[in-house]
Amino acid sequence: MSNKKYKIAVIQLNLNDIAENNLKKCISWVRDAAAQGAEVISLPELYSSHYFCQSEDVDNFALAEPLYSTSFTAFSELAKELGVVIIVPFFEKRMAGIYHNSAYIIDTDGTEAGLYRKMHIPDDPAFYEKFYFTPGDLGFKNNPTKKGNIGTLICWDQWYPEAARITALKGAEVLFYPTAIGWHPQEKEQYGENQYGAWMNVMKGHAVANGVYVAAANRIGLEQYLPDTPGIEFWGASFIAGPQGEILAQASHDKEEILIAEVDLDLQENVRQNWPFFRDRRIDAFGEITKRAIN
């Protein structure tokens, strides 16, 4: 049974460092979030390294880790010590030649409440994720924890209403989106405001359409690890939205921050009673949604 109220947090960080340093940094920030009252805490996408998908380079596979190794051990111990739920996005080595962009959901006793593998994999300039990640095969999941029902999607999943809908229909009260998204510096002046606005608006729409809380945890900072390239300027702006799309907490574009907001299940139920979108869905008419295109 979920608590009627609980506090969630997203942590916005610069993660342009080596794995050992990023791990220490994230542990420290999770401690700070817990000290501020957060009960469910999410880190940004691929927390343990710089965003290596700016290039296609087989050497980057060395950044991956097997299930239940370094990241799980460290954050399992931390979750148990602090009595919090921690969402830990990491680069998973499943076997030789198969890798995933994944996230652990670790419960308050240090056990695994769930594992999510990113379902939608982009392939855009400087976001060459298809080279590294096999699409997820675990589906969209609600993860019951001792604090609440948690749904975790990852970054590119943000743009797909089907992913949010299915996760919410399975009982998730909050949709967490660990994220690594930013501007191409040479495009920022012309397109930056619209790109950032679209990113935020589509997730606020998921909150409204499903009557759920939405929490996005992004990176900050210019990551320019490749010579003679502009790199990516991660735009930060992490946020937490309520079930009517209202912004409960909003981060800056360029500072490391912790955002905390309260999940109120009585409010969520009231919103769904007054805006009964689930009641009025025409599930008898939605069969075509599974087609790639409708000619």
From TrEMBL:
InterPro entries: Aliph_Amidase/BUP, C-N_Hydrolase, C-N_Hydrolase_sf. PANTHER family: BETA-UREIDOPROPIONASE, NITRILASE C965.09-RELATED. Coiled coil: none annotated. It comes from the Bacteria. Keywords: Acyltransferase, Hydrolase, Lipoprotein, Transferase. GO terms for biological process: putrescine biosynthetic process from arginine. GO terms for molecular function: acyltransferase activity; N-carbamoylputrescine amidase activity. It comes from Flavobacterium seoulense. This is Apolipoprotein acyltransferase. Residues 6-265 form the CN hydrolase domain.
